[in-house]
Write a structure and sequence with these properties.
heterodimer, A: alpha/beta, eight-stranded mixed sheet, four-stranded antiparallel sheet, 12 strands, globular, B: alpha/beta
Chain lengths: ~350, ~325
């Protein structure tokens, strides 16, 4: 995890806001507010945070799918395609973006139960998605490719000939993940891929994601609010709070020595087997992204709040090489200060 | 021993299809358990194992095919729903679906007060509601006259719990109360249950697939699989030392929040749900790593290890 590793995706002070006009007044939802992140080749990067903290919006921005009312307010997203020079993704044309999707970067959306077209057989959905990326190939060749992938991932082989409603939720989820990995993308983005599944199926899906990553040696960015899932799959974790990444470190560091007070709450509130002690949840409720508190957005809920927290957002401090935290307790930091 | 609620050989069958191709699915199959006063009892299992059907039967939303439900020793009959008289209350999974979006939230509280004839005047009703809201960390002022969309999911779930408390129930049936709530707010809800058991002496039937919170909060647990209770006992026994192969699988599948305990072994996922329901013999035989010929033909019986009940052929020899 040193600086020598090549980044595959990088953002620079990324800001993506929802701009809403309501009854003549403008409301700005600061969903992604000054995010700097570096994601390397061959790693699983987890993003954790409460609902409504901007996780999904951040993924949309990384996927370069910024459509109104979401607007890019500043900053850049860089892709490194095939190890060449970095490309500023925000300047790509729609056609260039379309060509990159599924081949370079693919997206497993939230509630992927509804991704599959209910009136088409699974194989027709597959054809729909990938035909234009493969050029001059016949339908049969596409089906053959899909069949190979399905078998490789241990799904039943007749699955391509059924309609989505004949499959259980866990099976549909796995079919969607198989589709996203079909063209061997370098980056796969998953938005809550295991939420709404029960524990046994969830474990199966995690297992499948890991297999894909090991086979393709690509990068996965996974969003979920379930810290248990992160502990099981992620190499590095970014903790998101109110549109900002407030702490980033390797999975071991996040669980063993969380620094930011919010991360500490998140980790300490997790129930553990063999330990029935009272666990405290995070006090208060998350701030509205329309009307963020001044200074550090966590200060109204923070037990260690100081005067400076109410006035100014801290920059990033680096307690060690792989650990980044934005909190006044660890110094003033540099870069990424935002109002 | 005092039994607040006792369920005896409860069975519910659904039939699918027409006259010729009828499939009968036993969603709840001879389920028996009891809940003591001031106890949290967990019913755990994966989706489609009959947890919610059991709750619906106890709440009287559905009629059982056979079996009996006793509340404080009194049987529940078709005409006399004991749970109404005793004030059993329910909390549901999705707080956004619990409340009608076109009705104010407080109207549900007034309705409960009226149904149980709990207050003589409006002020008395408000005092009662305010007192219950305090228990979940809210006040009457911050919720009066508001519609469900003005609250967050976590707040609504807490309101839903306060509503269940209005009639001072002895038993609350909570069907997946935390599965739609954020991980960080989950603990605040579960902590409420602990408080109610200790301070108000309320019993809770906690239905969930989240074994980590089940371990944290409950006293006894029953693991359900395809309509059967396959293992039942204290949480320490069942979750720390699972005996039934399905309980082991379930226990092993929980993603523990500890990077040192990553899963390394592979598992097989279920085939069709209905197929497992229709299976003769042990319903888990299709996926069980320790399956024998006997399992496929004969249904296992209950075997007791002290307080723990296990339904598995593995132990029938001993």
């Amino acid at each position: 995890m040193t600086g020598e590793r090549q980044t595959v995706l990088r953002t620079d002070q990324l800001k993506a806001f929802y701009v809403l006009e309501m009854y003549g007044t403008q409301k700005v939802v600061k969903a992604v507010n000054d995010v700097d992140m570096k994601i390397y080749e061959n790693e699983i990067y987890g993003i954790a945070g409460e609902s409504g903290c901007g996780k999904t919006t951040l993924l949309k921005a990384l996927y370069n799918d910024i459509v109104p009312p979401l607007r890019l307010m500043g900053g850049k997203v860089y892709y490194r395609i095939n190890g060449k020079e970095e490309v500023d993704a925000t300047t790509l044309s729609p056609e260039e973006k379309r060509k990159l999707r599924l081949v370079y970067i693919s997206y497993i959306p939230q509630g992927s139960m509804s991704v599959l077209n209910p009136v088409l057989k699974i194989k027709e959905t597959y054809e729909d998605f990938i035909a234009s990326h493969l050029g001059e190939q016949s339908r049969e060749e596409i089906f053959e490719l899909a069949r190979e992938k399905i078998l490789e991932l241990g799904l039943p082989k007749n699955i391509l000939d059924v309609y989505p409603h004949q499959l259980s939720g866990g099976m549909r989820q796995r079919v969607t993940i198989a589709l996203a990995s079909l063209l061997k993308p370098r980056i796969m983005i998953g938005d809550e891929p295991t939420t709404a599944l029960d524990v046994v199926v969830q474990r199966g899906v995690i297992q499948m994601l890991k297999t894909i990553q090991e086979n393709l040696k690509n990068t996965m960015i996974l969003v979920t609010h379930d810290m248990g899932v992160h502990a099981n799959i992620a190499d590095r974790i970014g903790i998101m709070y109110a549109g900002k990444i407030v702490e980033e470190a390797t999975t071991g560091q996040i669980f063993d020595q969380p620094l930011h007070p919010y991360t500490r709450f998140l980790i300490n509130s997790l129930p553990k087997f063999g330990d029935k002690h009272m666990r405290e949840s995070v006090p208060g409720s998350p701030p509205s992204l329309i009307d963020l508190p001044a200074g550090c957005p966590f200060h109204p809920r923070c037990p260690q709040v100081m005067e400076i927290c109410r006035q100014q957002m801290p920059g990033f401090s680096y307690p060690d090489e792989n650990h980044t935290v934005a909190c006044w307790l660890f110094g003033e930091g540099k870069h990424g200060q935002a109002a | 021993m005092d039994k607040l609620l006792e369920v005896n050989e409860l069975t519910k069958r659904y039939s699918q299809g027409g006259l010729l191709a009828r499939v009968i699915c036993t969603a709840v199959d001879h389920v028996s358990f009891y809940i003591k006063p001031a106890e949290i009892f967990t019913l755990a299992g994966e989706s489609g194992c009959g947890k919610t059907t059991t709750a619906n039967l106890i709440l009287g939303f559905e009629e059982a095919t056979s079996g009996a439900i006793f509340h404080n020793g009194n049987p529940q009959t078709r005409k006399e729903k004991v749970w109404i008289a005793e004030g059993v209350q329910a909390i549901f999974q999705d707080p956004f679906c619990t409340f009608n979006p076109l009705r104010t939230v407080d109207s549900y509280f007034y309705e409960t007060v009226r149904n149980f004839r709990l207050a003589r005047s409006k002020q008395e009703a408000i005092d009662r509601i305010d007192q219950k809201l305090h228990l979940v960390g809210m006040t009457y002022q911050e919720f009066a006259g508001k519609y469900p969309n003005e609250f967050s999911g976590g707040q609504l779930q807490r309101i839903s719990i306060a509503r269940a408390l209005v009639s001072d129930p002895k038993l609350i049936i909570a069907d997946e109360p935390v599965s739609m709530v954020d991980a960080s707010l989950r603990m605040s809800i579960v902590n409420l249950f602990k408080q109610f058991r200790e301070k108000l002496g309320v019993s809770i039937l906690y239905i969930t697939h989240d074994l980590a919170t089940a371990y944290y909060v409950s006293d006894r647990i029953a693991i359900m699989f395809r309509g059967n209770i396959v293992e039942m006992g204290t949480v320490e026994e069942v979750l720390m030392n699972p005996r039934h192969p399905y309980s082991k699988l379930l226990r092993d599948s929980i993603p523990e929040a500890d990077p040192k305990k990553r899963k390394t072994t592979a598992i097989t996922l279920s085939e069709l749900e209905l197929e497992e329901y229709l299976r003769q013999g042990c319903k888990f035989a299709g996926r069980c790593p320790e399956v024998t010929e006997n399992c496929k033909g004969v249904a296992p019986t209950d075997i007791y290890f002290g307080d723990v009940m296990v339904k598995c052929h593995k132990y029938s020899g001993s």
